Amino acid sequence: MCVVASVSTCVPLCRSLSVFNALYLALSVAVLPALVQATCHGPVVKQRTLECRLNYDNQVKALLSDRAYYYGLDAETIRTICHSVRRTLKCAQDLKSECHDSQIDIALSDLKSIAELCFYRHFFEVYARNQNCFLEQSASSRRCYQDYHAQQQTVLERIHNGDDTSLDRLCSLQESLLRCIRANVRLHCNQEAIQLVSVLVKPSLKFSERCSDDPPRRPIKKQSPSYETIDKSSPKGNGACAIRAHWLSGLVLATLTIWQTWRQTWRLVL
């Protein structure tokens, strides 16, 4: 509302303000799409995806070293890694809702196997009952892996060089590794432990997410590790992703509110 000494000075003043506001709105409408495009530009999305998984990568490097999940790794270490997995997937989910870029899924595709472990129903209860058996069989499991490792090096080099035909060979080697470990576990552990072999082994193998899954071997239904089924009690995710998303949402809401106010003011003036 204009509060001035006379009507003659009110109308020009309000019109001047309306013209200024209209120009500001036009500038905001022009800049906002550019801002969204800048935060969702290809290289920027790639960098933000790397930021999402940074904590997970650091945790794996610090906690696993040359150890594998199927060596009887202590449950708390696995729990800590799963905590990082959930944070990474939540951050990626927020980034996808903002940018809708398929390269986000591609950059995180290697997390599929560890996500399946983390979202396996009642995993920690089941694993606690069988950890000692995997620990006792760790020497045999290492020998199985050494045989696999000796053969997979050349195959991995071919895949890294773009030879996708070698993927079938790698998947065949991985299945042989699973059979070797599963045979030892079958001799010394119970059926519940046998059902865990694939879940524990695959997160330790490169490109395991690109090999077809084994047929169902257990009555327990595992929860999907897709972004949409992440536990709602999980941490809110990477701070950088959350800050950008909240800041952009606030900017959009503020712009819409200002626009509505300008529309009302413009109608009053006219």
Automatic annotation (TrEMBL):
Superkingdom of the organism of origin: Eukaryota
Name of the protein in its database record: Uncharacterized protein
Region (Disordered): 210-235
Protein source organism: Ridgeia piscesae (Tubeworm)
